[in-house]
Amino acid sequence: MSFDVRMSAPTWNKISDYAMIGNCRTAALISNHGSIDWCCFPKFDSPSYFTRLLDPSGGHFALTPTDSFQSRQAYLEDTNVVQTRFTSKTGSASLTDLFPVKDPKTQSNELWPDEEILRILSGETGEIEFHLELLPRCSYGRQGIQFSRIGDWGFKGSDGRKHFLFQSSLPAKNLTLEKTPLGHKVSGQFKVRAGEKIFTSFSYSDEAPAVIPPLKTALERYEHTIAYWRNWSARCEVEGEYKAIIQRSSLALKLLNFAPSGAFVAAPTTSLPEWIGGPRNWDYRFCWLRDASFTTRALLRVGHLDEAKAFLNWLLHSTRLTWPRLQVLYSVYGESKIPETIAHWLSGYRHSKPVRIGNAAFNQHQLDVYGEVIDSFYSLAGFLLPIDRETQKMVVGFGKAVAECWREPDQGIWEFQRPAKNYTHSKVMAWVAMDRLAKLSKRFRWKVPYEAERIAKQIRDEIESRGFHPTLKAYTQAFGEPKLDASLLVMPMVGYCDAASPRFVATRNAIIRDLSQGDLIYRYPPGSDGLPGPEGTFTICNFWLAEAFAKAGSLIEAERYFKAASDTLTPTGLFSEELNPKNLEYLGNHVQGFSHIGLIHAALAIQEASCAQKQRRTA
In this predicted model, what pLDDT tens digit does every residue of 396-412 receive, in sequence order? Predict the structure, then answer.
């Protein structure tokens, strides 16, 4: 656990300085000096109202000691409630941050606001002086918000259409409302002493009149939230050495779940750069189909069947508009058009531009997504009986699209911005689609208007003859090219080959030789994506490599590459997308679901391999 010294709020925090809270509709990032610097309302892909993460003047909500201090941040056990402990020369205090969440029974019996951030400041020893500053800005930090005081108990604000309410248990005299060039700001300076609790609540509503959450019931909302998260965590069916980090990764994934539809966003942020100052700054607040089967299998393996089924239902519902064609990504409500614009008024994280809103990759053709979706269905088919005719038609239709287009080039799993190619990973996932459909048709006696088994063999023959480079002696990124790609590490995970097969072992070793820096793995050679400049190592690639070694029975190597990535977890147990291998600085959007999915699969694979090894020794 880290121990950070802060003299004052820095202009830019490290990405790893942020923890995440949420309510399975939206999320907020909170720095370890007590500032909420990113939050969108009312859902993940809505405009942000706290945007300091991407621009110093983008808006924030800070509760920070006025003197020099040390801070330590952690989640309360088995919850998504964050606690930041501050220690100064004069005393210590803890700041507890949460989005109140409730179980269905509480939801039907009690009226809660649509969105609320609850902050509880508790004095522990001595006394500490704190500074409070609330400065939300609408439209991704573009405009200020007008606030007015409501008697002695709070402030109401509006951007003309959306409505906000700020309440505090502080005496009204401790808080001032000030008009600034950035909009109205609520601020105050006060001391918290041992045994004292100070409550603040910031709530959002799409329309007025809004539900007003009384501060006198704030502790009840806190207790409901703790109970909700601990009840959810108790369903985790994992034991063993890695239980704690699997549990934390599962909780992180749950925060990326948009409960009303079942979708999982890739990350709650946009435009955190994959290299400081570089152009790879993407909006990840959407659902990528490339993550589908990995997400489904991860949820199943840790005992969260309800979320897995809801996610599959979202997959089948959201793709109806484009059926039988599949897009790369969809919105949390299944919208298929996600136009990309540039937020030119934002400076970008540490001046990394452009800042993007939306993602133009929705227009790309990626063959691998068909295998992901069909494999998700295959993994869950036994839990969906009886399978209705409409669902059968949809899945068979996706397979028909693969049968007709598998020979065509595409943009590949990494959404390369260059002419389409015959990517080996894409063909492997096309094989997955046909392999699973052949098995589904036999199991459920489906009538399939194409020979899935024969097509799967054709695809395999093509991969073996064109995807394996005779000189490099490895499977390569694209047919006929000598470049490697770490996405090929998934071949044994999806059942294409055995992890100990000679061709895969040669590929695995070539990836380690050519795509690693230390024990961290790049996803492809520099410049493969058609964009200039470097990027970081890709965290999930380490976990793919660890899982591949575990499946081959090579535990020492599996643990080595697993540890290289897992040792970089933040103090709160979270991952971003990438790492700078030289200084282990976090890069890319944060918190990254793909990284946590990889951790879950690799940790379970290592535990299973370890158990198998022990059984062989005692046999």
Answer: 999 999 999 999 999 99
